[in-house]
Amino acid sequence: MEENQKQKQFLVSSVSELTSSSSSLFSKTEPVFARLSLDSGSPELRIGQGAELSDAVVFNVKISQLFKLGPAESLCVSEANKEKSHSRGISIQFRNEEESRAFHCAFEQWKKEVVVQEPLNNGAVSTSKSKFDDKIEASSAKMYFHYYGQLLHQQNMLQDFVRTGTYYSAVIENRADFLDRVVVDVGAGSGILSLFAAQAGAKHVYAIEASEMADYARQLIAGNPSLNDRITVIKGKVEDVELPEKADILISEPMGTLLVNERMLESYVIARDRFLVQNGKMFPGVGRIHMAPFSDEYLYMEIANKATFWQQQNYFGVDLTPLHGSAYQGYFSQPVVDAFDSRLLVAPAVSHVINFSSVKEEDLYEIDVPLRFLSTVSTRIHGLACWFDVLFNGSTVQRWLTTAPGAPTTHWYQLRCVLPQPLYVMPGQEITGRLHLVAHKAQSYTIYLTLSALVGDMLQTSSVKLDLKEPYYRMSQPQAYSAAQDQNPSQLLQSDMQFPSRDDDGSILMQPPSPNELHSL
């Protein structure tokens, strides 16, 4: 197959007119090509011989349908329109089943993704909006796909060896789940997970990637000839693309900061509903958000002091104090992304479980988590610490990929929501509250956090509103901790489960879940 931005070309064995004689349309002395192009301004399928495809048979992709007659044979039918009162059909014989499959994918992509220009009454151009476009701002999507279309950012993720190594182990150790199976890689990026699936013996992998990284993925896959004939890269959004067959297994890395940032989990769920066979597997299949209150005087003072600039009453003759309150709130509206010492936690963590195999897309628009903790120390609580993990529930080996404090650091780090007003607690004291996440069109979430603690007869309550899209990337080493908080961190990281044991490659072997957790799944 030859390809550029304006055309895709396939070599075929033969082409026959769908008539009673079914005679071949072209000489057998020269190769026959099927070319999808935009030469006329609208998508066309041109079938002919030679570099210029002389005497080509031309189909308007917009009004044509493609059907499979056999593993390597297809039928293309052009519907009747204003110019032609009758339809036309041709039989296309491909050299093998893989090339037939690749042509079908390309045809459906060309039919669906190429912008069909139809002048409206006002002279504008009509483009059909996908479900993704309806719920995501165009400016956010443009920046998102630009970011992930760059190799330097893909390298950053590939060099997260905890992430990449855990995916590799989860796939290779569960060959039975991939062997001779059809796999869809959702948001394939560089194509690394598709290559892992092919290494595990997948029958065929469809790598779906909407950014320009799809072109790099094709190059990378083509450079691995022992695997490339079983991987098809499809450039487009999972909400829009069409596949020639269902998948036995989905693989993806849809996790963002706090698990849900970037809202790719929704695309993962959409891919499940569109492409996965009933009872098919998802790698990963379960995600958990873990939360625990923390005490960190250094962090709190660092954020609060940022606003002292606005306390100046004579800044070149200007009083800045009217904006101090807004600046103070603004700094606390940024979630902090860094790696922290697990001994800063002051109570055992609670968890919110998302089962990717059963969750509805709409369930991810708004996530509400009631919070209840018992303090283990006497201290000031400065906010809520959060991290996540995901489960690869393989038939042979079950693995967790965790971002927990104390575990090997990943490019996700951990996240902390800092309260503008700390709470005072005593050992054994109950802390209650609510974490409420509301999705917005910038591919992220607004976070509403409230924590309360009763001191005597007085209820202390502190609330904060944060934008997950605009974090403070602190990326410093874990800060010092109070001696009063020097306790076993594994007791605080997991409330219902012990801290997972670590394998040699840094990934996590699954621990038996508690009855409560099994119920939540």
From TrEMBL:
Segments forming domain Probable histone-arginine methyltransferase CARM1-like N-terminal PH: 7-112
Region (Disordered), start-end ranges: 495-521
Name of this chain's protein: type I protein arginine methyltransferase
Keyword field: Chromatin regulator, Cytoplasm, Methyltransferase, Nucleus, S-adenosyl-L-methionine, Transcription, Transcription regulation, Transferase
Gene Ontology MF terms: histone H3R2 methyltransferase activity; protein heterodimerization activity; protein homodimerization activity; protein-arginine omega-N asymmetric methyltransferase activity; protein-arginine omega-N monomethyltransferase activity
GO biological process, one term: methylation
Signal peptide: none
Domain of life: Eukaryota
Enzyme Commission number(s) from the entry: 2.1.1.319
InterPro entries in UniProt: Arg_MeTrfase, CARM1-like_PH, PRMT_dom, SAM-dependent_MTases_sf
Localization: Cytoplasm; Nucleus
